[in-house]
Each structure stands twice: as structure tokens, then as C-alpha cells.
Amino acid sequence: MYLIFSSLTGLTIGTVVSLIANLFVNGIKFFEVLRLELFFIFSSVIYAEIIIPFAWLSAGFFLVFLIKKMIGSAPWQGPADAIYCAHRPDKSMDIRQGFGTVLAAFTSLSAGASLGQYGPIVHMGALIGSLFRKYNLHSVSLSNDIFIGCGVAAAISAGFQAPIAGVIFAHEAILRHFSMRAIAPIAISSICAASVGQWLGLSENILALNFSAQPLLNQVPALLIGGFIFSMVAVFIMKTTLTGIATINKLSLPIGYLAFVAIFGLGTIGMIVPETIGIGMKSLVSILAGHYEISILFLLFCAKILAVLISICFGFVGGFVSPALMIGALSGGLLSTILSSLGFEVSSITLMIAGMAAVSGTIVGAPISMVMLVFELTESYDFAVSAMLSVVVANLFSHLVFSHSLFDEQLKRRNIDVSQGRGNLALMEQSIVDVAQTEFLKVSPNASVANTIQLLKKRQQTEAYCVEGNGTYVGKLFLPQLLKLRPNTEVHTSVMKSEKVIPADASMFKAIEIASDFVGEALAVVDTDTNKIVGTVTEAALFQVYLKAQSDVHKLEHG
């Protein structure tokens, strides 16, 4: 029964995602063609070549701003949110905010923003998977991450016509684990998405490559050097992007300033270097075909990075895979020229393809997926192995100096660290207050030792908590210490001077760290701002929460 339900889930999600993803891509193509047709229609108008791009960008920016007003002030979503929800079974993706982001990305890309379409498609696939779980198939014994994985795999498969890369991408970049329960529906969804696109004639492999690879052994030095260079390019893009967005948000500039920079900046770059505006897939094919000289490649490289930063920092919405592919190819072309002049034996096309895979794989945190994507697009084992050399070096270097991916760094800046694993992540997001016991033995500071000992004997406990009438926490009392005092002594004189307490705003993960070397019955949970006790928590309670978290993760990842 599980096999039937999981197969039907994969087939259904794959079909729906394929249709919508292809409509998304072909819709952007339609508006690109329409924009070019306007140049011919108004060719007789003075300055039409200036007016039309600026007017088109202005209309797109206004619509994106309108969408933002409609869905609220929350930040735009993206693949990072899909990763987070895939790691938290109790969390659901924000459908309204998510599809608003997808619509804003469609509008931005149709207007000519220098961003990518695959990030929004991946996010849309995750949203569709979440919708199926929420409204149609929640009773089926499939976990949240499987639904998201099906949608993501179908999106990559439909976008690139690369079903194997889609399956690997879903596991490597989003789910971050492999299980037999997940592989079947995700693989079915990915294959179905590619098949539906081909059957309806909606899909087109615009990155289909037809080149011959050079012998691998001669290329190894250049590919290893390229790995470091491509990694630095990717890290530069990620750092400048995140820093730029944070700076613009901090400045809180009026919408008029943002609009001026976005429209004027992109419009000007588009007039000087038109290849850098929009998604740029056709320009990428021309770059791989060697249609540009070294000086033009350098100009395209600088202009594309600048256009991407202006687009994403000043109001437009989109992904990073398409720009990363183009920037990676340009990096490979520039590097091949430099290394050739230094005496290295270099194949320009091999280094450009390696650059595509390395830069994009580093940014999205999916090195194996990008190697497989190269294999499926080129149908060349030699190109795939060559790309793998640069990809693994680039990803390792980026991981050491920056982060696992752009998406991981985005989550870290929201205090979400998925590298800790599902179990620890769940503990980090559960408050200690959820398990704290509000019923515990409270004793007034002025109470006598004799009365306190009697209370402890009656409760059959060895610890009590000295609390003032207004709830202020004084400290813990221990029966062995009380027995050493005179019966009429006030108990506050026996309060433990150096005592471990758990802050009331601590997570379960932090509480377990605090209690790791604790010996006793329970720890006090104290509001550190007011110094008032809100409850106590036992070691047994902490162990139970920890074991449950580990059990849930094991069940999810291993079935």
C-alpha cells in the first residue's frame, strides 16, 4: 500500500510541477520576445532603444512593489525556506508568501532583472509539494520532507531536462539525507516531470551542449587551479550579495531611491552590455561557443556581477543558478586564456563547463548534483569527471572560508543552523519552558530550618527552592546542608552560593548543555531579566526530550 501511495504521490506532484514550471519558463520567454518586438514596432520613434528598456524595467519594478504590498512586509522566501521546512516536520511553508515570491520572481525576470529562474522554480516545487501534503495527502504515511523533495526534484528535472540531477539535488541540497522511503517517490516525480515536458513539447534543453572533451590528464593542473579561482568567485558573490541586502535593509531607503538605482542601473548596463540583462541562457551558449574575445569576456564578467547585485539588492526577485552558470563560464574562459599564456595545456570549453558547475554548485551547496547536471547536459563522461575536479575543490574551499552554501548562510543569519542536524535543530527551537514543572517545593527565605526539613521529609525530596513572596529566586536548598544547621535558623543562610540555573529563554539544546555535568534532582528555570523562578526541570525530563528527538530523526531518515 505504501508503494502505491508513494508512487501516485510522485506521479501527481511531478506532473503538476512540470506543467507549472514549464509555464513559468515559457512565460518569461514570451515577455522577452515581446520586449524585443517592441523595438521593431517603435523603431521609428526617437530614442526608442532607450525608452523601451527603462519603461519595461519600471513596469516590472512597480508590479513587484505592488506584490510586496499585497502579501505583507515579511521577507521574500526562497530555497532556504524549503531546506528549513524539510528539516522540521512540524513546520509548514508559508503558501501565500511563497507563491507571492514566485510571482514577484516571474515579474522581475520578465522585466529583465539579471537573476535566475531555477531558484524560484525550486521554491515553487517545494510549495506545491507542501500543498499536496497539507490539503490532499496528509493522511498518507509520507513525511513532510518527501513531499518537498518530490516538488524540488520535479522542478530541477523540468527546468534542465535532467531527471537524475533532479533526484540528487533534492537529496543533496534540500533533504540532506538519503532513505529508501524517500528515493522512490522523489525519483518517480523527477522522471515524470521530464517526461511530461517532453510529451507536451513544452520543455527545451536550452543548455544542450555538443563539444568534444580533451584528455583529462593534461587538464588536471588547470582544473585544480580553477577550483580555487571558481570558489573565490562564488564566495565573493555570496558575501557581497548578503552584505548588500543587509546594508540596504539597514538604511531603510525610500522606495523611490530603490527604484531609481534598480531601473537606472540595470537600464544603463543593458544599453552597454545587453547580454547581461535577463536570465542570459542564450548569452551563455554564445560564451561556450567561443564567440567573445578576452576583453569582452572580462567586460561581461564584471557587468554580470554588477547587474546581479543591483537586481537582488534594490528590489527585484530571482534565483542565483542561472547567473552562477554564466559567471562560472566567463570565469573559466578568462582563466583558460591566462593559464594558456603561462604555458598550461588548457581546453577552454572544459574549463568553462567546470566553472559553470563549480560556481553554481558552490553557491547552492550541491556539488554532486552539478556534476551530474554536466553529465546529463553534455552526455559526456569526460566533461563530468573534469568538472568534478574543480567542483570538489571549490566546495571544500568555500566550506572552510565561508559556508556550505548561500542558503545555509541565509538560515544562519536567522539563527537557524541546519548543519547541526535535524535532532539538534529541533532541540534548538524548543523552549525549556515547555517541559519545566511549575509545581515544586517553594520555601520562604525566612522559614526555619526545622520546618523546611519537615516539608522535605513529607515530600520525600532532598531539594527545595528558596523563593521570596514576589517570586524572586533566592537559591536552592539541600537537605544535607540543612541538617548541619540549628533548627531555628532561617533557611536563606543555607542557600547554595554557586548554583547552575537554566535561563527561561533557553532552548532545550542549551538546557542540555548546561545540565551536562549537573548532579542533583532538578535545575531551576529562572527569568534572568527579573530573577524570578518560572519552574524546575529534571534530568529525566531532559533525557526524554533528547531521546524523542533522536528517535524522530531516525524514523524520518531511516524509516
Question: How large is the radius of gyration?
Answer: 29 Å
Beginning-to-end CA distance, first to last residue: 15 Å
Strand order of the largest sheet: 1-2-3
Element string (H = helix, E = strand): HHHHHHHHHHHHHHHHHHEHEEHEHEEH
Task: State the CATH architecture of the largest domain.
Answer: Orthogonal Bundle
**Major sheet description:** 3 strands, mixed
Summarize the amount of helix as a percent range. 55-70%
Provide structural commentary.
By secondary structure, the protein is mainly alpha-helical. The protein folds into three domains: 2-200, Clc chloride channel, CATH 1.10.3080; 216-419, Orthogonal Bundle (Clc chloride channel), CATH 1.10.3080; 425-549, CBS-domain (Roll). Helix content is 66%, strand content 5%. The protein has 22 helices and six strands. The chain has helices at 2-41, 48-71, 79-87, 95-111, 118-136, 144-160, 163-175, 180-200, 216-251, 255-272, 281-288, 294-313, 321-341, 348-364, 367-378, 381-401, 406-412, 422-428, 449-459, 479-482, 508-514, 539-558; strands at 442-443, 463-467, 473-478, 501-503, 522-527, 532-538. A three-stranded mixed beta sheet has the order 1-2-3. The two termini are 15 Å apart.
Keywords for this structure?
559 residues; mainly alpha; Clc chloride channel; CBS-domain; 3 domains; three-stranded mixed beta sheet; 22 helices
